[in-house]
Amino acid sequence: MRSPLSAARVRRVLSTRRRVVAASVVVVLLAAAVAWLARPQDPRVRTEAAMLTVRSGPSGDEPVDLDTTLYLPEGASARERVPAVLLAHGFGGTKESVRTDAEEFAGRGYAVLTWTARGFGRSGGQIHLDDPDHEVRDAQRLLDWLAARPEVATDAEGDPKVGVVGGSYGGGLALLLAAQDQRVDAIVPMITWNDLSRAFLPESTGGDPTQGVFKKGWAGLFFGGGGNVGSGPAGISGSTEEQPQGAPADAGPPSPGPGAGPGTGPTGAPARTADPACGRFAADVCAAYLRIATTGRADQAAVDRLRRSSPAGVLDRITAPTLLVQGEADTLFPLSEADANARGIAANGTPVRVAWFTGGHDGGEGPQTDSDRVRFLTVQWLDHYVKGAGEPPGDDFTWSRIAGFDALDRGLVATGYRTSDYPGTSGDGRREVAVSGPAQPVANPPDGNPAAISSVPFAGALSSLLGGVAGDIPGQHARFESAPLDDAVDVVGAPTVSIRAASPTGEAVLFVKLYDVSPDGAATLPNGLVAPVRLTGLPADVSAARPVTVTLPAIVRRIEAGHRLRLVVATSDQAYATPVEPTVYTVAAGDGPVVLPTVDGTVIPTTAVIWRWVLAGLLAAIAVGLVVLVALLRRRHRRQDSSVHPAYADVPLAVRELRKEYADGFVAVSRVDFEVHPGQVVGLLGPNGAGKTTTLRVLMGLTQPTAGEIYVFGHRLVPGSPVLSRIGALVEGPGFLPHLSGLENLKAYWRATGRPWQDAHFDEALEIAGLGASVHRRIRNYSHGMKQRLAIAQAMLGLPELLVLDEPTDGLDPPQIAEMRRVLQRYATDGRAVLVSSHLLAEVEQTCTHAVVVNKGRIVASGPVEEIVGESPSVLFDVSDPAAARSVLGRLDGVRVLPDTEGQLVVDTNGTARSEVVAELVRAGIGVDRVVPRRRLEDAFLALVGENSRGSGDR
């Protein structure tokens, strides 16, 4: 019968299809354009290493030796001049830190000059923190040197066509150099600062840096020579690294390459500061640091010194088009630093574009999809403003959010978004969420110890992971909670909150945090970001305190429906300096709600997105085909056999003449025949390769038998049989999603069964697992034993009538094994039954009521455990003096006392009457309390299968 489609409906369908096809073509073309623009170029380049002597300093004539390398693209010459890139490394790095980026820029047609900044590696001089008279003037002299190179294109004599790219320390230099030298044509500063004093002395209510809270963790790593500090993407590939200050990056003195040009000089010995506490830092920088680190407070002179190395005061001088790339996972230089730079530069009419990505000092480069976006934006920016190629990039604001795991490589995937107007950290929309809770006393610990953990400076991706396990010390923090959200909210920007505080000293240092709390209680602190505040002029009574607005660090996070917000106000944080004297503050929530900024944007199409859609379509088609196939098979099986075998209607499991032979002729199971009845715990025993696992796999429908039948409660078992829902199983180990918690994995499994929620019996299953609060932790943090216990709980979901377990005690410690023994015995009640495969014979003997012994694919014994054990040739004696009894019995002919019997007196009488043995002990004055035959399942097992039996090689 034909479908009654009207002509209008046909037109609508065809029109919809045309729109879908057209949209798909547009997306594919966009993806192809992105791939073409970001395609790798010819990597063959030539390099020239040289030690250049430049003159800088306040007077402009202080010499310093800089270790440099020039990368020239193939074909660059006096006839074929090319634009240049000045590529700066991160703090503690060297020119080698950016080698990969330099080679890629050179492969794209740029002359790239890299150098080791003064005070690092083999370069001379001291570290002045991007001081205008030192590091910035050094870079100006390098511009002079580039302008003199015959291969470098110029805008005028002495003025090279040049862009400056750098991450962190190198990004600060790019901004300061552009402000000081108008020859710079474009800059791409990444994950860098606006105001160095605010970065290291933050105060989130807008207070002056002299009142800021000292970021001692990061500062100590910079000045104390700690390990590598990842600075995120620099240039194209993001290979810049920040390393211990003063650490050499190369093995020996470089050889000047041909055409090194004027200004080359000998390798100078690095100058050292007079104070060894600061390594190669200049004396004024060292003194400022030591004063702050000693007192935990900054004086105005220290703030002025840090601001001298900050772009904040010179942004109005920057005329070079600026692409600002900032990381969302960054406790050193948060998104607010880029926001301040963007606003200051744009106020002068200079083209500015802002891009946020998921990495940063605490998150590295972020997922590949994100680093690809940063690479594309960087190349696009330089190609237009330095090379003069391509359309204007525009000033769209782009950001990204972790979207999940890639189905192919299981790596993280970030989704990029764009909007035409830059909203800043305040967003262009807002969502208000009320939080509540009583006023709470919080203790400031003496000398800040113990301290809460929010992030670990210098730990790279580890620090961002800590956002999920951030720890607050009991008694040192106050909590205020919201109700579950009715719908999801995408936060893009800096949330604001209001708090009130009281202190007996009139002052308080507090750390304000905003957690995302899932329905199962798991709390996540996004990227470990906190808002430190120093409040002064506080009353002693919180009822008299005025509300203070706190601006939290900007974040990009989707808070799902059903989640709650948790506002935490803590008195300590291991990354910051806090007051030494102990005291107790009182903290209350302010009068207003938590304000979450939002931004509406469109998804940025990428080749990865296109292929994911193509792959999703293919998978969907395959899935539909499989569903249809399974449905047909099930229907056929139901037609073939829907009856119930009357002999087995009340039997949980009946295996009849089971045989499994593989295509290569290997016989894993040749004849297996047994039953499992209600109330029984049946142990399936056998040496390795005997056929146990194959039997269980056939039982669970994981492989088809060659011959034989399996009945479950009288229903013949076939793949897809409805009766399988009455079986719970753990066969071939647990399989869980590592990024979900244990409870989330259990819920996902039960949802997949399609059975009613109330039938799951989660509480009983979790009690059996015995994981406690660990059930809320992600699976990736589980030990093998914890995964095993969770898998057993999963098998018991729904309290199935037949439970099939393969090596359930694998990975459990002795107390857990004993508990598992009790669990299985309790489970086999109310008509339920258990089939358990195990190689621990002692556990089977204590746990199981019945046993089935398999050897070389055949059953060699089955029945109650006590019948299999049988009569004992040995006797166990309970006596008053075991040591004396051993001595007496050792003198009797034919009687042998067995060794290594775990402290018990076990005797092989060898035909001697037990009464004679007892009489001999009594005559020796030894009391005999009990005489019992002794034989273990292990003895019977070895007698049945042989000492050296290896089975048939089970698969």
TrEMBL record:
SMART domains reported in the protein's UniProt record: AAA (SM00382), PepX_C (SM00939)
Pfam families, sorted: ABC_tran (PF00005), Peptidase_S15 (PF02129), PepX_C (PF08530)
ABC transporter domain mapped to chain residues: 653-881
Positions of the UniProt region annotated as Disordered: 230-273
One MF annotation (Gene Ontology) recorded for this entry: ATP binding
Membrane-spanning parts: 20-38, 610-633
Superkingdom of the source species: Bacteria
InterPro entries assigned: AAA+_ATPase, AB_hydrolase_fold, ABC_transporter-like_ATP-bd, ABC_transporter-like_CS, Galactose-bd-like_sf, P-loop_NTPase, Xaa-Pro-like_dom, Xaa-Pro_dipept_C
Keywords: ATP-binding, Hydrolase, Membrane, Nucleotide-binding, Transmembrane, Transmembrane helix, Transport
Record family assignment: Belongs to the ABC transporter superfamily.
Protein name, as recorded: ABC-2 type transport system ATP-binding protein
